[in-house]
Amino acid sequence: MELEQMNLINKKNKRVFSFDLDRLDKSNIVNINESKTPLTHVHAGSFRRIFLHFQLHERLLQEGYNSVFYIGNDDYDPYDYFPEYFNEFERESYRHYLGHPLSEVLALEGKGSYADYYFNEMIAILREEFEINVVTYKTSELYKSGVFDDGIKLVLKNIDKMNSLYESITGVSQKFNSRPLQVICPNCGNMRTTRIINYQNEEVEIICQNHKLRDVEFKGCGFRGCLNPYKGNARLFWKLEWPVRWEALQIKVEGGRKDQNSDKGAREFSEKAYLSLFAKTPPLNLPYDFCYIRSAHSQQINRFGISVIDALKFLPPQLLFYLLTKPPSTQVIDIDLESAKMLDIYRDYVKIFLDDDGSKFDLILDNLRFERDVKLDSKFNPLINCLNHYLHTSKEYEAWHLDFSLKMINEDERTFIRILFKKLEKINAWEASSIQEDFRKATVEALFPINQACRLIYRLIINRETGLRIGVLLENVGKEKILKYLSLY
Ligand SMILES: [Zn+2]
C-alpha cells in the first residue's frame, strides 16, 4: 500500500487514548510493547490491539517523543494446542511437541521454528499490507541470553510476597509454590510436565510427570533431579514474566485486554508485583475490548473468528484498519464479513477513502453481479477484489450475483423453461417490458403459477429466493447469455 493512503488512514481516525500523553517522559525513550504467542495464523481481531499501539506510537512521534514500538515473539511459551485447521497427519506429527517451548518446535515448512513461522508471517503482513514496521524480539533469546535471570532470582527470593499479593487480589493462596517457573525438563524438553518440589540455593528440584490442561494431555518422562533455572532452563509463569519483562525491556506502555484488566485480573497482579519487586511505577495501560471478525465460510482460527489473511480477502487493508480503529477501544467489535451490512460498509469506504459519491460503487457492484468487464481507475482494484469475494462467499440476498451452475428442476419447471425459451428466442427487442410480457405469457401457456415461475428464475439465475423484476434482471444479463443458459434445460 502506498504511504499516502496510510496517512489518510491516520487522519481519518483521531484516536483518543486512555491517558494523558504528558504522563510519558519526553526526555527518555518511550518503549511501547505488544506481544504474541504464535500458535496459529494470526487472528484478524488481534490486529485491533496492534493498530491501537501503532496509533499511539505514531502520535508520540508526531509530538516529538522518542517512541519505539516493540512486538515480542513469545516463543518461549509452551506449545499448548494444535490450530483447529490441523489435519490428522499434522496432529500426529506434532503431538510429541505438546508442552515444549514453541521455539524448539519444528516449523511447518522452511527454516526456523514453529513460532517463527507464524510470527514472521504476521510481521510480513503488517509491513507489506499496512506499512507498519516494528522492532521485534524473541522471549527464547531473552531467556537463553540471561536477560531475565536477575528477574527470576528476584521472583524466587520473593515467592512468599508474590503468593500473598496474589491471595490479596484473588483469594487463591500459595499460587506460585510449585510453579513460579516452568522448568524445561533436561531429559525430554517438556515445560508443561515439570513441577518444582524444592528450592536449594541457586537450584530447583523438579519432577517430570504427565499433566492435563484443558483436555490436552502432556506426557512427562519421570525425570527427577536438580538444575539451575537460568539461561533458558526455565521460563517464568506469565503473570510473573510480565513485570520482569517490563523491567528488562524498560517498557513504558503496554495494553491489556478487558479480561486481563478486570477486577482480580492478571493486570492488577502484575502491576502490583512490578511495584513490589522493582519499586517503580508500572507501564501505562492501553485497555481494549474483544474483537470478533467472523465469516461462516472461512477457516476459524479460534472463538474470535478468522485469520487476518482471510479477512483481507473481504476487506482492503485500509478498510480493515478503519473498522478496527474507529470505535472506542473499550467497546466490543463484532463484524460478520458475510452479513448484509457489508454493502453499506463498502459503500462508506469508497466515499471516505476513494472520493466517490457512490455512483462508481454502484457501477462496480453491477459489473461484478453481471460479470461485466469495465475498466476503472486502478485505485478501485482492492475494493473490486474484496467485493467480488464477498459476493461469492456470502449467502445473504444482498450478495446475489449471476450463478449459471446447473440446478435440479422438475418436469413442470422444465416445460415452463422450454416455452419461455422459445418466446425469448423470437423476441423483437431485448427490453425489460417485452421480456416481462413474454415471461407472463409463458406462465399462462405452461399453466405454471407466476409466483413459482419467478422463484424458479431467481433460483436458476442468481441462486436466491427473490430478486429484481424478472424483465429487468434478464435484460441486464443479456439475451445471448440467457438463451445459452436456458437451453441447458
Ligand atoms: Zn521430562
Structure notes:
- The protein is α/β, with parallel strands linked by helices and 489 residues long.
- It folds into three domains: 1-291, 3-Layer(aba) Sandwich (Rossmann fold); 292-399, no CATH class; 411-486, Arc Repressor Mutant, subunit A (Orthogonal Bundle), CATH 1.10.10.
- The chain has 20 helices and 15 strands.
- The chain has a four-stranded parallel β-sheet. Strands 5-6-9 form a three-stranded antiparallel β-sheet, with no helix packed on it.
- Helix 7 (159-170) runs antiparallel to helix 10 (266-278) and helix 8 crosses helix 10 (266-278).
- The site of zinc ion has 9 residues, from loops.
Features:
489 residues; alpha/beta; Rossmann fold; 3 domains; three-stranded antiparallel sheet; 20 helices; 15 strands; binds zinc ion
Biggest sheet, spatial arrangement of strands: 3-2-1-11
Distance between the termini: 47 Å
CATH topology value of the largest domain:
Rossmann fold
Find the count of extended strands (DSSP E, 2+ residues). 15
Shape call: elongated
Helical content (DSSP H or I, runs of 4+): 40-55%
Structural class: alpha/beta
Write a short abstract of this structure.
This protein has 489 residues and is of the alpha/beta class.
